[in-house]
Design a protein that fits this description.
The protein has two domains: 161 residues, Rossmann fold; 178 residues, Rossmann fold (3-Layer(aba) Sandwich). Helix content is 33%, strand content 16%. The chain contains 14 helices and 13 strands. The strands form two sheets. The chain has a seven-stranded mixed β-sheet, with helices on both faces. It has a six-stranded parallel β-sheet with strand order 4-3-2-5-6-7.
């Protein structure tokens, strides 16, 4: 079993050209098109916070992202405004373009690779646009940045995606990241959510499990293994909460199967993003697949273990030294497939539950010493 912790290559290694933003272009501020997937968006947070530092005092920082993540960005003090897109992978509506136009923002940064977002921002009157040159977008951008393809089947990149986002921010004049994670503001008190999460948040020894992954089954550790982890945690006096999307509710039921209802609960599809963040806030420890829940827990500062198989922990591991990435190296991993092409998922099956439990015990003991 291989155990990896967050390691980021120097963003300066990309040797991106420095770009001088014309002071006359700012208008009311900057708009940043964040990635569509929650995990990718979290990995772009350090770069987003760095960009905030170069914006003139009279300007604001605005985010464009799928509307489902409104509450996530509302919890970030660095974000001054949010424009939600009703369809992440479609053309902007006239209303959405009109809303951005009303803000009169002069500078735009794109952390995704879609040409349609560049076109929409141009139509909204954003004067200076910066982003990667992917898919021919360089023709529409004020300045563009070229990156090599990162995902190579069977080979680890050794380059964390966070470094790419930071490289773009630094090319625009933002300072280097010092490793500090943002302080999220929680918009709700747990008292408002007594019917779903309050009692679980009150427990001092809550384990939060994320057994799903929107990307596909190839990323997922067996639900019965999560069941064994939950059973062990409960046996030592704790409680286990299973979190995920509505489509992962069946997996959540499998994880909770045979466990006491007052000690283990399946909340997949039953929490909004703010409630999920509240659960993370009060959790003692987390165990997840490579997923948005993993990334969100890490950026919120919670300790945990991430189980990797079909994807690359050196490229998309959680951005926190408090997390460990566990994987088994086999010839075909990482394959970056949604479903295991061989049908065996050996990269996941060879990760032993006993090893995961031993890692949890060690991590919790270290965390106890740090707190005390």
């Amino acid at each position: 079993m291989e155990i990896l912790r967050f390691s980021m290559n120097d963003p300066a290694d990309y040797h991106l050209p420095e770009v001088k933003i014309d002071p006359r272009c700012w208008n009311n501020g900057m708009v940043v098109r964040m990635p569509n997937h929650l995990g990718d968006a979290v990995m772009a947070i350090p770069a987003l916070c760095a960009l905030k530092k170069i914006i003139p005092k009279y300007c604001g920082l605005f985010v464009v992202a799928p509307n489902m993540y409104r509450l996530f960005y509302a919890a970030l003090p660095e974000v001054d405004g949010f424009l939600g897109l009703s369809a992440a992978h479609a053309n902007w509506s006239f209303r959405e373009i009109g809303e951005l136009k009303k803000l009169r923002l002069g500078v735009g940064v794109l952390f995704n690779n879609s040409p349609r977002d560049v076109i929409a921002m141009r139509l909204a009157g954003v004067r200076s646009l910066y982003g990667s040159s992917a898919r021919g977008r360089f023709l529409l951008l004020t300045d563009s940045f070229r990156f090599k393809h990162q995902q190579i089947p069977g080979r680890r990149a050794g380059e964390h995606l966070t470094s790419r986002y930071l490289a773009m921010a630094m090319a625009l004049g933002a300072p280097a990241w010092d490793g500090t994670l943002p302080e999220f503001r929680f918009l709700r008190d747990g008292d408002e959510n007594k019917n779903r999460i309050h009692a679980w948040c009150e427990h001092p020894d809550m384990l939060l499990l994320g057994p799903g992954a929107a990307y596909g089954d190839a990323k997922c550790y067996d639900s019965m293994n999560y069941n064994r982890i939950a059973r062990w945690w409960i046996s030592r006096g704790g409680v286990a909460v299973v979190a995920g999307s509505k489509s992962e509710a069946g997996t959540g039921r499998e994880v909770c199967a045979g466990l006491p209802e007052n000690k283990c609960v399946n909340l997949c599809g039953q929490t909004d993003l703010q409630e999920l963040m509240q659960l993370m806030r009060y959790s003692r420890f987390m165990v997840c697949n490579d997923s948005g829940i993993m990334h969100l827990g890490a950026v919120l500062g919670k300790p945990g273990i991430a189980i990797f198989g079909s994807t690359d922990p050196t490229a998309t591991g959680p951005i926190s030294a408090a997390w460990s990435c566990v994987s088994e190296r086999i010839d075909c991993s990482p394959c970056f497939k949604h479903v295991c092409p061989h049908g065996h998922k050996k990269c996941m099956q060879q990760v032993k539950v006993e090893d995961i439990i031993e890692l949890i015990e060690k991590a919790v003991a270290v965390n106890n010493k740090t707190v005390n």
